[in-house]
Specification:
Elements lengths: L1 H10 L12 E4 L3 H14 L3 E5 L3 H11 L3 E2 L3 H5 L6 E4 L6 H10 L3 E4 L7 H14 L3 E3 L7 H11 L6 E9 L8 H5 L4 H17 L4 E7 L11 E7 L5 E7 L8 E8 L2 E6 L13 E6 L8 E3 L11 H13 L7 H20 L3 E2 L2
Parallel strand pairs: 1-2, 1-4, 2-3, 4-5, 5-6, 7-10
Antiparallel strand pairs: 7-11, 8-9, 8-15, 9-10, 11-12, 12-13, 13-14
This protein binds nicotinamide-adenine-dinucleotide.
Nicotinamide-adenine-dinucleotide binds next to helix 2.
Length: about 350
């Protein structure tokens, strides 16, 4: 069994080959750059040449604490740094499409954050420019690289649970949105900014659904304007189904963040460690119970990496490999349009009260 686990660990390794590494600059010096991007890139051996943020003091503080040598005075100055080959954009999402187009026209490969774009049309325009200029875009939907999720997906692909039938996420936590005023004001909240991770992770295992239903709601006394409790049901061809049940208004302190994949020949279940103490978190847990392997009941898989910061090396590592060998990054901007469409269809369902076809 340990030999079988070694093959899973090898499949999901996120180390970045030294010959693939290219200098990076980051637009935005906010919370996620501070706790995730910069620590992950340092561990991965990447050179971050500099940061730009509209809030110059914040950029200076973050750069100083992480040993980043330059704070650019403007986006133009960053884009004119010819040594920079990759621009990682991590700003409030409304500002991302314009910065992405400017960075592409300056000849830079891109790491974009979720949500990649407000609508598919905007995304297609950005992808068209990247294709024309021969540049690559990866979307940092790094839950695909979170070790518990990545190992679970590798086990499914290895056939350990037979034909997969159901994937479920159950998240019941207390989320303080107040450090992000733009999130507190947003009328689209839970699906757009949080469950988008689970939805993208589900797509990484099952592909695109054919029909979806979503209901979203609020809790008396909540601070945020948008929905904080959602239930999403995804129907895939045949008998495959997925469900995401997320609430951010747990008032009793007993956080729960679990996932489970069932199949015709076994099951995989785990916890999402990050959500038990955000953003420090703890490693995920993962167990597999397989009828085709000698597991004799539930057997733990030894998870040693965290969602934050470790999974953040995954998308940029894939981008750098794609630049080196001409492959598609994982997940590419083109792939991510499927996640954007899914989010859009779920809100259409939430607004109408009806289930929605994906076409
Ligand atoms: N796990 C994840 O993938 C994950 C987690 C958190 C946030 N995010 C995404 O990362 C992005 C940033 O989130 P955050 O938590 O760091 O937000 P934040 O509000 O803490 O920081 C955003 C920063 O962007 C700067 N900024 C805004 N517009 C700018 C512009 N035009 N040019 C330069 N700087 C600009 C702001 O001054 C601020 O410092 C968002 O898109 C968010 O959805 C992803």
């Amino acid at each position: 069994m340990l030999d079988a686990y070694a093959s899973i660990a090898e499949t999901i390794d996120t180390a970045i080959a030294p010959e693939h590494r290219l200098p990076v600059a980051i637009v935005g010096a906010g919370a996620i750059v501070d706790v995730a991007h910069l620590p992950a890139y340092r561990t991965a051996g990447l050179e971050v040449r500099g940061l730009f943020d509209l809030d110059a003091e914040r950029a200076k503080d973050v750069a100083g604490r992480h040993g980043v040598p330059n704070v650019y005075a403007s986006l133009d100055e960053l884009l004119h740094d010819n040594a920079v080959r990759v621009v990682d954009i991590a700003v409030a999402p409304q500002a991302q499409p314009d910065i992405a187009l400017r960075a592409l026209h300056a000849g830079k490969h891109l790491v974009c954050q979720k949500p990649f774009v407000p609508d598919e049309e905007t995304g297609r325009k950005i992808i068209e420019v990247a294709d024309r200029l021969g540049l690559k875009i990866v979307v940092n939907q790094q839950m695909r690289y979170d070790e518990g999720i990545a190992a679970a997906r590798a086990m499914v692909e290895a056939g350990w649970i037979g034909e997969p039938t159901t994937l479920s996420f159950t998240v019941n936590i207390a989320t303080d949105w107040t450090p992000w005023p733009w999130l507190v004001r947003s009328d689209r909240l839970e699906i757009m900014y949080h469950s988008i991770h689970y939805l993208d992770a589900i797509r990484s295992v099952f592909g695109d659904p054919v029909q979806v239903f979503c209901t979203g709601s609020r809790t008396p006394g909540q601070v945020a304007a948008g929905e904080t409790r959602t239930i999403s049901t995804l129907v895939f061809p045949g008998d495959v189904r997925a469900v995401v049940h997320a609430t951010h208004e747990n008032r009793t302190g007993d956080s729960e963040a679990t996932f489970r994949i069932d199949g015709s020949g076994g099951s995989i279940k785990g916890t999402i460690g990050l959500l038990y103490d955000y953003p420090h978190g703890r490693p995920d847990t993962l167990e597999v119970n397989s009828l085709s392997l000698p597991t004799d009941g539930w057997l733990p898989y030894p998870v040693t990496r965290r969602w934050i910061p470790d999974a953040f090396a995954g998308p940029i590592g894939s981008l750098l490999r794609a630049v080196a060998d001409g492959s598609e990054p994982y997940p590419s901007a083109r792939d991510n349009l499927g996640t954007i469409r899914l989010v859009d269809r779920l809100y259409a369902s939430m607004d109408s009260g009806h289930s929605m076809p994906m076409k």
